[in-house]
Amino acid sequence: MGSTEIREQVRRRLDAAVDDADEFDPATPVTQPGWLAGDTPDPGPRVRFAPGRRGVAALAVLAAVAAGVGGVVVWRDRPVPQAVAPLPAVSAVDESVASTAAPVPEAAPEIVVSVVGLVHTGGLVRLPDGSRIADALAAAGGAREGADLLGLNLAQKLADGDQVLVGLAPPPGSVPVAGSATVGPGTGGATTGGPVNLNTATESQLDELPGVGPVTATAIMAWRSENGSFTDVEQLGEVDGIGPARLEKLRDLVTVR
User: Fold this and answer.
1) Residues 6+ apart with CB under 8 A from 118
2) CATH 3.40.50.2020 corresponds to the domain 195-257
């Protein structure tokens, strides 16, 4: 391409730009609405905004850019779905099956027995219901040396509130001093291999008798010191603190020799 052709192209482009600018006539007056007319002084000729082709193109580009920016903002602010944890499965309970469930086992019933006398650990022991005298002696640490076990039925079943009295075994050929016995609560009866001798029993041996406490045992010892030996069990009624009901309980548990 020669320089002449280049100059011709430049000239044509400049003519086109001039033609675009000539489309607007600044001498043309701008009219105003009638309601604005009146005493307002004539402002004279006004300039009308005419962006031209390039201005329109620039506005179109700006509008496109603004639309793009707005689209990006809307796209970024769109709601994002969140994963929801699955709910736990719920199963129906069959009432017929629930009603046949095994019941909670109750605690085994217990009895409280008093074990006194020649045992290693005398006092109250707790035993399962249906226990025997042998179980009570084992719970009390066993019998001491010289204890009378012949007067006890080791296979006898015990009831709540029973007392097991373990006495002293007599030497061969002698009279028992304080034999062993099992006494039921409030009955006054005894299974005994040798009643307690009122004339030879110690204060502690008398204290171990059912219904006889330390005060009554001391009163029996005092009566014996003042009056000598007992000649009859009925004389216990003369001791302070022993009435007819208590005497009836002790009648089969004591003797005089």
Assistant:
1) 143, 144, 146, 147, 148, 166, 167, 168
2) no
How many Å apart are CA 83 and CA 192, to the nearest integer?
85
Q: Around Cβ 161, how many Cβ atoms within 10 Å?
A: 14
CA triple 148-150-152, angle to 5 deg:
90
Across residues 71-82, what is the average pLDDT? Answer: 69
By three-state DSSP, how is residue 23 classified?
coil
Q: pTM above the 0.70 mark?
A: no
Helix, strand or coil for residue 254? strand
pLDDT interval class at 186 (50, 70, 90): very low
All residues at 6 or more sequence positions from 86 whose CB lies less than 8 Å from its CB, including other chains:
none
Instruction: Name which of 117, 239, 257 is nearest 197 in CA terms.
Output: 257
Report the phi/psi class of residue 3: left, alpha or beta, with left for phi > 0 and alpha for psi in -120 to 50. Answer: alpha
240/199 Cα distance (integer angstroms): 17
How many residues in the chain?
257
Mean pLDDT of 49-66: 75
Q: Which of 49, 158, 172 is nearest to 113 (CA)?
A: 158
What pLDDT is stored for residue 22 in this prediction?
Answer: 52
Quick one: tokens of 214?
Answer: 């330390």
Give me the residues paired with residue 197 across strands. Answer: 255
Name residue, tokens 């769109």: 78
Residues 206-220, mean pLDDT to the nearest whole number? 84
Instruction: Please answer whether residues 168 and 148 qualify as being in contact, where contact means their C-beta atoms are separated by less than 8 angstroms.
Output: yes
Q: Do residues 231 and 199 touch, judged by C-beta distance below 8 A?
A: no
